[in-house]
Amino acid sequence: GYYERKKQYDKAIDTLDDAIRVNPRDAAALELKGEIYRSKKDYKRAIKAFNELEAINPQTGLREIISTYLINRDYKGALKKLERELKENPERLDFMAEMSRIYVAMGETQKAFETARKIISKKPDSAYGYIVLASIYTNQNDLNSAIDTLKKGISIDDKNLLANQMLGDLYSHKKDYALALNTYSNILKKKPDFLPAVFAQGTTYDMMGKKKEAIDKYRYILEKSENDVPTLNNLAYVLASGYGNREEALQLAFKSYKFAPNNPAVMDTLGYVLYKNGRQDEARKILEKAVSLVPDNSSMRYHLALSYKAIGDTEKARDQLVKALNKKDFAEYEEASRLLKNMKKK
Length: 346
Known about the structure:
Blueprint: H1 2-5, H2 9-22, H3 27-39, H4 43-56, H5 58-71, H6 75-88, H7 93-106, H8 109-122, H9 128-139, H10 143-156, H11 161-173, H12 177-190, H13 195-208, H14 211-224, H15 229-243, H16 246-259, H17 264-276, H18 280-293, H19 298-310, H20 314-324, H21 333-345
Helix pairs in contact: 2-3, 3-4, 4-5, 5-6, 6-7, 7-8, 7-9, 8-9, 9-10, 9-11, 10-11, 11-12, 11-13, 12-13, 13-14, 14-15, 15-16, 15-17, 16-17, 17-18, 17-19, 18-19, 19-20, 20-21
């Protein structure tokens, strides 16, 4: 692990090989070995390591093999592997669901639909196949068909919380907030401690501008799960945006970053909170990194523009605002537009 962090990959592999010689069934060593090869884009050796892992830990090994094929965009290799697994385990619906997702990635939507419908026919009393089918419709941006599909699944299998959650998320995506909140409430009547539904309530209130209600939901989650990264991240952002204590926001943002230092959304929130706390140079550095990882995210570019403006680099601030405003579907579009107009006037 030390050698990997130092990017001394050859030494890391040599050390892992020593460990595997001592204990050929060391699953952790084989998994890390595969991950290192995969990070180096040496996919052939990564697959070899994960095949050895699969012999010891079939579930983890298979997951990493499929993941490696997908990262390499070797969709045919992933499908062949899953087809072999299905011959041995024809009832594994999760393998079929993964195949459906791969067909979507390949652009073979018809095959994806056929696979999803096979899942439904194999287990007609479950909402599982309907979830897979709804995911395909969602990918096609056909939200109405996705919603109708989930409703059919729920009518058959009302206790499936994932189907109910997905339905609420689709309502929220369509900005049917009342229906979304009602769906999440129904989930919590069935299972009061189902935190994903509480988090979804929080994000929905957040989007509605009901920040107090959102904060209450986020705080409730942290009482139950104090290190939940998405909740730490969202609460930090809301508090820093004028709805709470900025110093508390900074503590939450740093805690979130500690657990997910490579997550661009977490970087963005930390950078924004640093900006709000007047720590402009630190804000600029981490926001630049976030934007480099997700260059198409207009919200991140807007936050970077704010940090550039704060340190007096108006040229870079204008450049980021222009790039951000190429898209109109982000929350701060109006604020970014006003800021750019004001800067042009000055």
